[in-house]
Amino acid sequence: MKHFSILVAILSVLMLCLAPLACSSPEVVVDEPESVKLNIGMTSSPNTLVPMKSEKLIQASLAQLIWEPLVRQLEDGTLEPCLAASWDVSEDKLEYTFYIDPDAAWSDGNPVTAEDVKYSFEVGKRHHGEDLFAQTKKAWAQIDSIEVVEDEQRG
Questions:
Q1: DSSP-H helix ranges across 23-81
Q2: Does domain 51-141 bear CATH number 3.40.50.150?
Q3: Global pTM?
Q4: Tell me, what DSSP letter sits at residue 44?
Q5: pLDDT tens digit string along 33-90?
């Protein structure tokens, strides 16, 4: 009788351990969602989402998620085209010519123009003296002029 009780106890424990395995459902393949929602916890609201006016790290970080740059630097140091489909650099490395991607568009579908990019750079130049990060101040201060060479309307 004692052996029977031990056997029943062992079988009971074994059944309890294996029971969840019997309840598992078959693997379900789920299609990727069309859009992804990103929630960012913050301790305060940003004063601006305009990257050229960002004075705090959180503002700059949020702005980078919203605004597309001309190019983006990859981890290996190479540049990846974003708004700029391509670019040329003068021999003395002082003049950069960016060619805007003809498919670049604002969220409302209107095309991004060279005038739009010029305006953004002008805003950055105007605000570079304010309380920005030291490296940002230095970068904006190095820009002497911004000129639109050609801004064709795309049809």
A1: 57-66
A2: no
A3: 0.62
A4: S
A5: 677 787 877 777 777 777 777 777 777 777 777 888 889 889 999 999 999 999 999 9
